[in-house]
From TrEMBL, chains A, B:
Keywords: FAD, Flavoprotein, Oxidoreductase, Redox-active center. Residues 4-297 form the FAD/NAD(P)-binding domain. This is FAD-dependent oxidoreductase. Its cofactor is FAD. The keyword Flavoprotein applies. It comes from Micromonospora vulcania.
Amino acid sequence: MAQRLIVIGGDAAGMSAASQARRRRGRDDLEIVVFERGHFTSYSACGIPYWISGLVPGPEQLIIRAPETFRKDFAMDVRIRHEVTAIDLERREVVARDLDHGGEVRERFDDLMYAAGAVPVKPPWASTDADGVFGMQTLDDGSALRDWLVTEPVPRRAVVIGGGYIGVEIAEALIERGLSVTLVEQADQPMSTVDGDMAELVADAMRGLGIKIRTGLRVTGLEQRDGRVSAVVTAEGPIPTDVVVLGLGVRPNASLAEAAGLPIGPTGGIRVDRRMRVPGLPGIWAAGDCVETLHRVSLMPVHVPLGTHANKQGRVAGINIGGGYATFTGVIGTAVTKVCDLEVGRTGLRERDATAAGFDFVSVVAESTTRAGYYPGARAMTVKLIAERPSGRLLGAQIVGWSEAAKRIDTLAVALWNGMTVDDMTALDLGYAPPYSPVWDPVLIAARKAVDALAAVDDR
Amino acid sequence: MAQRLIVIGGDAAGMSAASQARRRRGRDDLEIVVFERGHFTSYSACGIPYWISGLVPGPEQLIIRAPETFRKDFAMDVRIRHEVTAIDLERREVVARDLDHGGEVRERFDDLMYAAGAVPVKPPWASTDADGVFGMQTLDDGSALRDWLVTEPVPRRAVVIGGGYIGVEIAEALIERGLSVTLVEQADQPMSTVDGDMAELVADAMRGLGIKIRTGLRVTGLEQRDGRVSAVVTAEGPIPTDVVVLGLGVRPNASLAEAAGLPIGPTGGIRVDRRMRVPGLPGIWAAGDCVETLHRVSLMPVHVPLGTHANKQGRVAGINIGGGYATFTGVIGTAVTKVCDLEVGRTGLRERDATAAGFDFVSVVAESTTRAGYYPGARAMTVKLIAERPSGRLLGAQIVGWSEAAKRIDTLAVALWNGMTVDDMTALDLGYAPPYSPVWDPVLIAARKAVDALAAVDDR
């Protein structure tokens, strides 16, 4: 008799795992049942802001594989609009509710893949029955916002609460659709994913686009009129608006797992080992936005909800479920984003992270250009490096620049991944031609500056 | 009394060395005399094709620092149009000829920095007194070609001989200026700096631009009429033309060094140690296009004449001359170029290099896109990886793609530099956002494919 894998959550991590398991084990060997609460499987949540802005025409573009594809081509029993409500580890069963037609099913499993993703952080004041308030996490969320933007009376003003990646991207999308947009951020700056000096460059670019930025401002409530949101209430008074988007981040969707007895780590994410097994529970796997992982530089557990990790972790879990061997050995916090024409990349630790992790370090900021200065289209590009002292080991890097800047963070990410020192890095053989960099690549210029900074500290 | 450093060659390597030495040793401690045969110091030879095409308006843009700047700001005795004709290691003197005013000077040195660069490869048939035949190595070469292109009767047809970086870039520059251009290459393909399958993509792009490509064709002579070049004679008959550009590569300009007794390696370049000292000759240094260096993957000496290496090597030599400690530990053959809108990057070994170096290997080619497939402006991008078997160590990588592709070679270059295996690489934490890559970065897709290829070979 075939063994049975049940997958909870049919997005990046869950479907990567299921696909890899199927690749190694045929339908006679492994039955695969997927429960997905929403309408979609395997889509690009990161693309939602570009659908809102109109840059991407429809949600179809964001769907990588539809449920029907998984059913037909991968022989999986994919049940959308089914929410798993309980996991019984003893009897090795899950209970799932059919959200559209009612009723419950119980299904047994041999292996269980928990990939329930993340849920938006939603403070008490955000609970409202008013129309016009949106999270921005699922394709269904995006769909709801799209509809609202063309509902009479058509919204003209928007408030985005939270200045992380999603908040910033949605603010830009709404400005591109012609709304008047205010971004409210409780901290001193939006885009705190990079250090303050770099974040200020991003804030400047956003203001240049016409986005109003209100920082250091706490939201305390929402006002409504005729069932529609009408204002965001803050410590400094109400901000009138026709639509509110919440971009306050997400937390692991692990409550069901916790209730079933899966171990939860300090970040709120499920604990897993390098093969994505839940420790102490044979046959139970977890991956994606619901788990915590190791930061390879701070050596501390972190929760980094990104599609790229979810896919890798799901793949690793699926290879292992399929009988192979694969490991996921942590992250270094690499991320890139585009804000207007400004590009922002980061990897490793920010200054505050390095301090929190107990590192002594120097940091340097180097100004350069994306191409040889004389080559048409050369744009300013700022590279920041953070290096441990006295060892010189790279701890973190950030890039802010215009076109052709952000993806260069990968060069630094690979250097960081391999534990290179900034002195090592000055020797790196990077590609040079006038359309791509000055003869001293911006990465090399920054590394040289860091070497000098380390020497200067030593001389003191 | 101050010691004296004499620098032979006032371009990238020589002036980097001189600047670094000056930074550490003041004028009372170290006198610096630079002899430069040409009119210029410290310019970007790599920018010459863009000046020819008109993309860069004038040669001034290509000059990084003029002789006057070095004299004034760096207290150096810079003598342009002075050719060193002899080195006397015994008496520690050089003899230099004033090319404009005649006469010779003898100057003593304590340290000698040999940075005479490279000279174009020029077969016997290329020696001609006809006008309209150009090398393309110095700013003076570029200047001569620029003048010729506006000399009546204005040239309409051009033949570029040699399909390396310079040949390809000049062919494009001339097509952009409206000439009818034929590229003649003795090998099967132009752009043999990448493997044949990748080079074919480049050849297609060049043909798309209207460049006629004649491969497998040997040039045997040049014809002239009224003192002007009129045809390139080949094994398949003459190709009529009004201008000929030679792009047959360069060799180390080491004859003077060899005559003086400096050791020459198998590539024809001067041998140096990791501090850029000439072995066995205290106080004698060499750097730049005239030296050979270690290829960190093949572990064989190579001659890679590139400004980026010349600058790094010069810097290392200058730090050491200045009393500091720095090393240059070899290259991995990273290079990028732009051919029309096509971008080409490479690092490490090509298949033929890997075979020559005795490696067993697999190679894979992965097709992907520069951005998420649904994001506007996503373009095709091809990544080729060569990995040692059975170890899986990355030996080489090549990228051909449209915008935003080539510089990604740096990610692979840093992985290669650190000796990563393709299996290690599948775990790399690279930046992901829809404007920059699919959720599986092209580099990761290629690494996964290489892992599969290694497993498939093992299964055989």
